Each structure stands twice: as structure tokens, then as C-alpha cells.
């Protein structure tokens, strides 16, 4: 307890000042977040209301259901941006009321003044990660399922449906149009099998209406065999499919990072790595699940221009604008690198964390340059004539 208290006193200002700054920051953060998301939700609802109410039997409850799915998406999307605005307003208010000058006069460094904002941002980052991992991922899947069914009411629970997948097993090329998990059973729709020789030439083609995995084996239904040599087609109602591919591999290949929580996405990556398949795209999305909430930790540094140096230059508006411009440029760089990672152009770690590390260094450089300044130049003494 004594050690923790000593660390708190060494890193943070007094308890009263820390609580005062955190309350000011959290109050502005919540106010801006709720206000901004409410306005954006109203605009989004105006664009979607006609489609929602066009469904048969739709009523006001359909609007409420849409709001419950869409509002969390807006919140998690704008939390880092709102953190930047809350930081700028908090520091600008403290500076305008000369509270920053008083803090500096008592011997507090710029780092101690900003650290309470960093503590509050850390709490928000943890809450953001938990909120996104438990609520937003489910809302993403439910809203997309609802849109695909034209906002129909009384829909059954959404099945675990995945998109198309290609894979190679030995000399056989397999294409599945859709992967569905119903309970413990995995169903593959519209299965195409292309068998090739050692030179890669097609020797036989098979198509099945669907296949399902049960009791440790695959079964094809509605199978049609096309003979390359005779150009004849034969049909089989049901046939065992001797392929060593487990159902988990099909599910892992079709996972949607925005629709699954962190642990499930990590398990899918492990499954693919055990089979020697590329996972860079999924790894970039996995790291982004941590890097996105962590972005708010940068906002006190990027917004520090609003706090320090204003009492010397007297131009508060320009410093607010500069802090906001730095924040916007970070969001642009972050989205750009995420896109590069999803396309496999850059390694996953660089795609997810390079903007964070770069702007962390930029923020500290600006803070030191603004607050510490350069040491005064010593002029040589003039020689006195004898």
C-alpha cells in the first residue's frame, strides 16, 4: 500500500487535482459522445426509415430495434475522435482560466498535468474494448442479417452463416458457396470439386447441392459427376466424401473479423496456422481490435498544444486547430494502414501499430518543443576597449 501510494505521488499530482481534471474530462467526453452519436443516429435513421418501415408488419418497434443495433456502432466508431475533442476542450478551459499557469507555478511538469487525462483515457480504452468485444460485434452481425432480409420482422435467430471459400486438399480444388453452422453440424452449400493430375490438368469435376459433417465424416448430397474424357454426367443421391479437412477449417477460412469477438478470431487464426495457411489479413484485424481502443491514449498528447505555450503566444484558436489537425491526420493514417494490412500489403503489426507509435513520438516531440523549448543562446561578452 505504501509503495502504491508513493508511486501515485511520484507520477500524479495531488488527489484533489487528479480527481478534478478526470471529472472535467469524463464529463466533456460523455456529453460530446452522446450528443454527436445522437445527431448522427438521427441523420442515419432519416436515410434508413423508409426501408425499415417498408417491411410487412413493421411498426415503431422496428425503429427501436434498428436504433439498438446501430447506436453502438456509432459509439465505438467515434470514441477516439470524441476523446480528442474532450481533451482539447478540457485543456483549453484549464489554460483559459490560467489554471495551467498555477499548476506550473507549483512545480508540476507538463507530464504530471497530462497524466490524469492519460489515466482517464486508459479507463475509457478498457471499457471501449469490452464494449466492442461483447456488444458491437453482435450488433454488426445482427444488423447485417436483418438488412439481408429487407428488415423483415419476426425473423428466426440468425444462423452462423459464412461466405464463399476456396481451398486445396491434395490435388483437389474445393469451392464452397456458403458455410453454415447449425448447432454441432456444419453444412456446406453448393460444393464444387475439381480433381487435377500432377501437371495441374483437370481430370474430373463434381458438384453437390450440399454437404454436411456428422459423426466425424463428410457426406455429399445431390452429387453430379462430370467425366472429362467421355463428357458424360452421372448423378448420385448420396455419397461419402473422404476429405481430411475438418469443419473448423471451413469456419476459420470464412470468419468475419467485425462479427466475432477477440477470442473467437484468435482461435480461427490458430486453426489456420496449424494447417499452414496464410493469416496475415486476419492478424491485422485481430491487432486492430486492440489498437483501435488504444488510440484514445494518444489524445492527451495530441491535444497538449491546447494547454501549453498559449499563455506565451496568446493564440488559443490556432493551437486548438493544430491539435485537431494532428488528431485527424492520425485517424487518416490509421485507416490507411488498416486497409493496407487487410489487403496483405504490409505486415500485420505495422498495419495496426505503426500509426500509434509514429504519433506517440510526434506527440512527445511537439510537447517537448512547445513546453520545454530550446535553451537560450548564450551571447559572448563584448570586449571592453582598453
TrEMBL record:
The keyword Membrane applies. It is found in: Cell membrane. The chain crosses the membrane at residues 73-92, 113-131, 290-309, 316-333, 345-367. It is a multi-pass membrane protein. Keywords: Cell membrane, Membrane, Transmembrane, Transmembrane helix. GO terms for biological process: lipopolysaccharide transport; transmembrane transport. The keyword NAD does not apply. InterPro entries: LptG, LptG/LptF_permease. One of its GO terms (cellular component) is ATP-binding cassette (ABC) transporter complex. This is LPS export ABC transporter permease LptG. The lineage of its organism: Bacteria, Pseudomonadati, Pseudomonadota, Alphaproteobacteria, Kordiimonadales.
